[in-house]
Amino acid sequence: MDLSALESRISQDNSPVVAARAYLKERYNADSEAFRNGEDVRTLVRARANTVDRVLRLIWNRYPFAQSPDIALIAVGGYGRGELHPHSDIDLLILTRNGVEQAWQDDLTAFITLLWDLRLDIGHSVRSLEESISSAKDDITILTNLLETRTIAGPDNLRSELSERVYSDEVSTDRNYFIAKREEQQQRHQKYGDTEYNLEPNVKGSPGALRDIQTIGWITKRHFGLQNISDLTRFSILTEEEHQILLQGETFLWRLRYGLQLIADRNENRLLFDHQRALAQMLGYKD
């Protein structure tokens, strides 16, 4: 389905679900085939995010509230970084300036219902700017999600205002944030036996896996206001060689995770024995 046909069907059909599902499935199959044929996983992870962006933006724009300067659809967390694996969680924030207006309520309910009907792993919250700041103060996970945001639809100045406050000491000092994330990391490592040598590792949560790389990114973003780990080379915290090693490790883990989710056909991050041989074959490894 080309983009003009997708836009026409989502904007004009009584229900856009059929067209949206068909497009998502088409892109999923194309990306899966590209992965099996050796396409760069970084290209595919970002392509998946772009595909979901396109569908959500078109559905959002069906509703009158989309014309308001006081409400926006924001991607947060990994999706906010522009990264989606085949079955990744898709975390959304419906951000308002001063709360949900009465005139929006029915349409917002309809929009959220449509998200469920897409059969994606979508998590959403609806918060005003002040509610978002209050939640970030109370919950380190919410704060972390709000460090990585993109506007999918609506005015970007709402997201910009939120980010400016999230990155300030109003919510948490960078020292307190570092301590909280360090404690979180230690607890997670203990959960996985505090060892990186595991016959069935979790490619996301185990020691030395993706979550640890992401933790480096979160802490440096909060402290330096950086958007990419690569920027640490400018501060002589990482050498270029160290950054390349980190990037190569992340890319390898992304390939494992992408292939694992294709094989399991769900949001699976555990490299179980049942999947190891099939994944090795998919990635071109031979006995």
Kindly give the count of domains: 2
Rounded mean pLDDT score: 93
Cα end-to-end separation: 41 Å
Helix fraction bin = 55-70%
Count the helices. How many? 12
Q: What is the number of strand segments?
A: 4
Structural class: alpha+beta
Strand order of the largest sheet: 3-2-1-4
Radius of gyration, Cα only, in angstroms?
20 Å
Low-confidence stretches are: none
Shape: globular
Largest sheet: 4 strands, mixed
- Order of helix and strand elements from N to C terminus: HHHEHEHEHHEHHHHH
The portion of residues forming beta strands comes to: 5-15%
Fold and architecture overview:
The chain is of the alpha+beta class and 287 residues long. It has 2 domains: 3-166; 174-282, no CATH class. Helix content is 57%, strand content 9%. The protein has helices at residues 3-12, 17-36, 41-60, 77-80, 105-117, 129-138, 140-146, 156-166, 174-191, 210-224, 240-264, 273-282; strands spanning 71-76, 90-96, 122-128, 149-153. Strands 3-2-1-4 form a 4-stranded mixed β-sheet, with helices on both faces. The radius of gyration is 20 Å and the shape is globular.
